[in-house]
Amino acid sequence: MTVITNAAANNIEATTLAPETVPSAVKRLVESGGRMQMAYAWYPEPKRIELRYLGSRADKQGFVVWRCLPQGRMPSCAGISPLLGWYEREIVDLCGVEFVGHPEPERLVLHHGASPPQPPLDPEYPADQAIPHSGARRRTPEIESADVQRLPFGPIRADVVESVGFTFLYVGEQIVHFHPHLFYKHRGMEKRFAGRSLSAATVLAERVSGVGSLAHALAFCQAVEAASGCAPPRRALLARTLLAELERLYNHLHYLGHLADATTLKVGNAEGNLLEERVKQVNGRLTGSRFLRGILCPGGLRHDIAPHPWLAEALDALHQDIATYTAMLESTNSYRDRLITTGILDRRVALDQGATGPIERGSGLDRDLRRDHPYAAYGDLPPRVTVKMDGDAHAREQVRIAEIDASIALMRGVLALLEPGPVRIECRPPAGSEGLSWAESPRGSLFYAVHFGGDGRLCRVKIKSPSFSNWRVFPFTVHASNMMDYAINEASFGLTVAGCDR
Q: Judging by DSSP bridges, how do beta strands 3-4 and 434-441 pair with one another?
């Protein structure tokens, strides 16, 4: 089978490797300035498992996809490309492949006490059968000093915050070690795609992470289009770009409001929430959905949108009020003082551990899929990408503020180019086909790989979500920090649990 990519996107080179040669291939890619993106397993046929590795070459030269048959065991690549550590552990939990020499051979997705009779992603595992669980407690690091105290926190937290548990080991206010416990509400979303129609699968993609509904649907639809070899009409591509930037806009405003709340700036929190609400009202008026659901489909749009002339006027009014809001935030000393030097993420750690989106750009990594590997209409309208070098909470906030301005400018560019025309073409992936695509979501790089079986129906969908990457990175900014800054640091990452747990 061949991986096909959209004509507008960069080339993808697909190669089959022997299991023992994968570590050397990863090493060559990393040493040449490239970066691994993800790894996953799927079943081309019953009892036959195949691994896929996705990497990006240096200098935006495109992607590589490696296929291999593990025969039950694989050499671990986590020591060469640390970000692969979580993907390998996920494969162990859900597909049963053993990775020899893994530096962190602990469960990741399945909690301690879970004992599935067979790998949960095995197509023969009954979709309606719960995984047996004994209720055993999760192991945490041992404490060797009487001065170190242990604080377990969660998974139930304040307000409506998503479920996640933390273990803090600390001395006084100093955090010695921080260990997050995720996947309390893992929903098996990837398995749910199997056998779905394309329309039902698009609805499912929109619900992987509610605040990234459009980005997930876009990456999924583009992957299906890649498998089909079809290209949506130009008006649909422009509309998709417009909608993606509207999603970025309301997410970044929500982020600023939440960050203001974490620094106890209540008026700043209320103003950010109000601006976010205004963007969601624009979304509802434009598409019928405040979260931009029900508008995308493989081949284009489910229905057309009519943004003129009111949308340009709404964007102008929003831009003026957002500029006033962000200027007030940045001129508030009590706010800025809590962000500067908080949660510093080193550039090398960001690269090695897989940071993405505003998190990596706040640590000096100049990467953005919209510009580097264009999709939709971004080839004609490349975004202005902002990079900050300090790697702290303030740098991450500044990146998002700059992206708000860039998004509004980009949307104005879309409106200038949007002309009447069709918004959908027929899109039918052939049996046995597969596709890979991506989107730069508000939180970073999002990849979808889709595989169709011999009956022409979906048999495997893999989701590489930005929060899965950034949750892995986050603890590196917590170790050796202090308790009073923790909430601010977490807010500055803009993490979602649903996007990680899937």
A: parallel
pLDDT in tens, 20-42: 999 999 999 999 999 999 999 99
Q: How far apart are CA 280 and CA 48, in angstroms?
A: 46
| Cis previous bond, 105, omega within 30 | no
pLDDT tens across 345-400, in order? 999 999 999 999 999 999 999 999 999 999 999 999 999 999 999 999 999 999 99
**Cβ-proximal residues to 46 (8 Å cutoff; 6+ apart), any chain:** 123, 124
Q: Is the pTM of this model over 0.90?
A: yes
454: left (phi over 0), alpha (psi -120 to 50) or beta: alpha
Cα torsion at 430, 433, 436, 441 (round to 10°)? 50
3-state helix, strand, coil in the chain (%, to 5): 40, 20, 40
Amino acid at 476: F
DSSP per residue, 356-398:
-THHHHTTT----HHHHS--TTTTTSPPPP---SS-SHHHHHH
Q: Say if residues 259 and 399 touch (Cβ distance below 8 Å).
A: no
